[in-house]
Design a protein that fits this description.
Blueprint (H helix, E strand, L loop, with lengths): L2 H20 L2 H11 L13 H7 L7 H18 L7 H19 L27 H16 L7 H36 L6 E6 L6 E7 L3 E8 L9 E5 L2 H4 L5 H11 L3 E6 L2 E11 L10 E8 L18 H11 L3
Antiparallel strand pairs: 1-2, 2-3, 3-4, 5-6, 6-7
Amino acid sequence: MDTITHIALGACIGEVLAKRKLGKKAMVFGALAQTIPDIDFIFSLWLEPSSNVLVHRGFTHSLLFVVLISLLLAVINQRWWGKSDTSFSFWFLFFGAETLVHILLDAFNAYGTAWFEPFSDYRVSFNTLFVADPFYSIPLGITLVILVILKPDHRSRIYWAIGALFLSSFYVGYALFNKFDIDEEVRANLVVQNIQTEKYFSTPTPFNNWLWFIVASNESGSFVGYRSVFDEKTKIDLRFFPRNDSLLRLADDQEEVIRLKRFSQGYYTAALVGDTLIFNDLRFGQMIGWEDPHAGFVFHYYLHPELDNRLVMQRGRFANWDRQATQSLLQRIKGQ
């Protein structure tokens, strides 16, 4: 999830877990602890892009890192800020809970979270929440503001914090329910349309949990489409994108191709646009694809010639996004 959401979530968790021992500092410690796994952003300062996409949400989002960083922070805090009513185990459990919730929440996005590094490079992706979902974040953000305003001894603080955590957790449950329903319809459509695939996934489109982006893949390519929870017609319109593995042999750096394939978890296509060879990771959706089924993909990496890939995760996310695109998104969410 986005950094602001992690900060608000960490502050609310801190209020619930440590307010009695730490006072208002519980919010600060919670907010800081919740953002610690994202220190991996510093590696982007010197890593080339295809390596950086694997480092992001890599070891710093692993279960081993949660244990190690919690131990380290527990030692530091017990020594420098410890009180008679705090202990090493209190600090360890506090920081452990905050960082564990961080990597758990990030796994609900499409990016992939390396829970098991360095023992396995398998990445966990529940594909249930968009990376920035206001319906998840707003209750936490409002509560953070209220907690900052309220006096430290105000009796309602704990109720605000618990309420925000309950609402955000309830929304995750609602999102899981939507995903289960969408996945059932996808499986049924693949059978009815006689589409042979090895794997598929569904993931929400930007800022909502009602319109879902669908990818079903086999060795030759992927079928891509959209499904709203409010759609009345049974059929899902799926467009085929060939994988074009032969094009990837034209890339200058084959190690770069290997890293990108690993990152994409097998959901990719290659395309030659003019003289530019592009690697598309399908998991992040299309640029306003609900409006234009031929639209390019959000994650498009230039393999040849050597062009700037430093903003590969962001440059396509809101490309061509305007008022009309927003209106068409809302219209598509309503169903067809």
